[in-house]
Design a protein that fits this description.
Elements (H helix, E strand, L loop, with lengths): L7 E5 L9 H9 L2 E7 L1 H4 L5 H20 L5 E4 L2 H12 L3 E5 L4 H16 L3 E5 L21 H11 L34 H7 L6 H14 L4 H4 L12 H5 L5 H9 L10 H18 L21 H9 L5 H13 L4 H14 L4 H11 L5 H12 L14 H8 L4 H6 L34 H16 L1
Parallel strand pairs: 1-2, 1-4, 2-3, 4-5
Helix pairs in contact: 12-17, 14-15, 15-17, 16-17
Bound molecules: flavin-adenine dinucleotide.
Length: about 475
């Protein structure tokens, strides 16, 4: 160690921010730091979806710029994680590695191995919880078992944790003089120049600053109405912070803290905080039941008679099922990389209950096309919709996509926005366009329903009877 202190590597992962970043904060206190980002998706996670890669590409640029503004250079490498960490440590004479924990099952396993090998050669390996309000290992029920019901889980979380003042960006930063080999972010080939990527990019501001601004304006203007407006996809009633949260451009603690400092006295009981709690619950379930990223939590669903039908699956993906709310959602997803939560529930239910297609196929499509693709929240959402997860919707409660549209897209505005073929249909005809073939404005290019709701419902309930036996 020299007079400046020991050099540390700060390994940025799904925590692409400097504010409220415990790994960065504590490393800087120690001495000089080398910020790095390593791209080795097969080791860190099952995969990284195409839309999510676009987000990663842009958010890495904003992180790099922010680091440069405080005199630090982001080192970017791809390939084997351990090999890169050891090489960087050797060439910089770093004595420790700091990172915030990733909770995906494959990352947990990999990290244990990396930690052991790094410590074996005498370096320090320090990890922090930077991406959840509470570490999943800290919450158990009275029998020392993991909770499976959200309300019990969240009540316990709120009783043992409180928001903390977000860690400030350290002011005194020491960089090192040595040149360390780095790739350009462009060399990671994240697919950012593909047409689809360019189209999606138009809808988003990827800068971390935007996330805090969005949160502040959401708290000021939308928070009080959230429990009503959050269900209506034509209204901008939700915060749209999910991709920023996934890549850690804003921390859940920053949100928790901002809510606690707002003028809203009911912030702790609010629906909005509960949704942040659902995100925590997804991570909690993934931590305690890691097999659920591929398997249903409820064992009886292992034998569910899913159907293989590529034609129906393609219709669902392309937004041509003939059910306007389902199609509007799938088209919004393809166009923007995001879909409203109410519509996510409706399209997921339609796939698993009307088409009887395996929830894992839907989860894979979401994972590839969502900018906020997140293994924990996606698994939670799909298992919830399929009725096979913890505290999920009962299987026999089957959403009717037409009445869901009538209830949550009352004037048909959301449908009109995403399905131009039927935009001139009157309300309520727009909810069942096939019944109004004679309507003056109906274009023939919109498909008839690919399945009948009542028949599908019966088939779904029959399939459920098989696994109940
Ligand atoms: C089938 C299905 C798949 C989903 N896949 C994902 C996914 O891959 N990534 C993802 O981030 N969310 C997923 N969700 C949850 C939810 O739809 C999104 O988090 C939400 O729509 C994001 O929009 P928002 O930021 O405006 O949310 P807001 O309503 O503003 O909520 C604030 C934050 O709370 C969290 N949150 C809200 N609702 C949920 C929920 N139901 N479950 C978990 N966390 C929630 C998100 O982090 C969100 O950003 C999925 C839901 C379903 C039904």
């Amino acid at each position: 160690m020299d007079a400046l202190g020991a050099t540390s590597i700060v390994w940025f992962r799904n925590d692409l921010r400097l504010e409220d970043n415990p790994a960065f904060f504590h490393a800087v206190k120690n001495g000089p730091v080398i910020p790095i980002f390593l791209w080795s998706p097969n080791e860190e996670d099952s995969s990284v979806g195409s839309a999510s890669k676009i987000w990663l590409y842009h958010s890495l640029f904003t992180l790099k710029k922010q680091l440069e503004s405080i005199g630090l250079n982001l080192i970017v490498r791809k390939g084997d994680l351990l090999k890169n960490l050891l090489e960087i440590a050797e060439s910089s004479n770093a004595k420790s590695v700091y990172s915030n924990i990733r909770y995906e099952p494959s990352s947990i396993k990999k990290d244990q191995d990396i930690a052991r090998k790094i410590r074996d050669i005498g370096l320090e390996y320090k990890t922090f919880n930077g991406n959840l309000i509470i570490d999943p290992s800290e919450i158990l029920n009275k029998s020392n078992l993991p909770f499976k019901v959200f309300s019990h889980f969240w009540k316990k979380c709120l009783s043992v944790t409180a928001p903390t003042k977000p860690l400030a960006v350290p002011q005194k930063i020491i960089s090192i003089n040595k040149k360390i080999q780095s790739l350009d972010i462009k060399d990671l080939n994240l697919g950012e120049t593909k047409n689809w990527a360019l189209k999606i990019s138009k809808y988003w501001d990827f800068n971390y600053r935007f996330a805090q601004g969005k949160l502040d304006s959401f708290i000021l203007n939308n928070f009080n109405k959230y429990s009503e407006t959050r269900n209506f996809p034509s209204i901008d009633g939700t915060s749209k912070l999910s991709p920023y949260l996934h890549y850690g451009q804003i921390s859940p603690n920053q949100i928790f803290y901002s809510l606690s400092k707002s003028k809203n006295t009911n912030w702790k009981e609010s629906q909005y905080l509960a949704e942040i709690g659902w995100r925590e619950f997804g991570y909690y379930l993934m931590f305690h039941f890691p097999h659920t990223i591929n398997e249903p939590l409820r064992k009886e669903f292992k034998n569910f008679p899913w159907i293989e039908n590529d034609i129906l699956f393609e219709s669902w993906k392309n937004g041509t099922t003939g059910y306007p709310l389902v199609d509007a959602g799938m088209r919004e997803l393809w166009e923007t990389g995001w879909m409203h939560n109410r519509v996510r529930m409706v399209v997921a239910s339609f796939l698993v209950k009307h088409l009887l297609i395996d929830w894992r196929k839907g989860a894979d499509w979401f994972f590839d096309t969502l900018v906020d693709a997140d293994l924990a929240s996606n698994t939670l959402g799909w298992q919830w919709s399929a009725g096979c997860g913890a505290d999920s919707a009962p299987y026999f409660r089957i959403f009717n996509p037409t009445t869901q549209a009538e209830k949550f897209d009352i004037n048909g505005d959301y449908i009109r926005r995403w399905i131009p073929e039927i935009k001139n249909l009157r309300t309520p005809n727009i909810f069942q366009p096939h019944k109004f073939k004679d309507d003056l404005f109906l274009s023939n290019s919109y498909s008839a329903p690919i399945v009948d709701h009542s028949e599908s419902r019966k088939k779904a309930l029959l399939a459920y009877e098989i696994i109940k036996k």
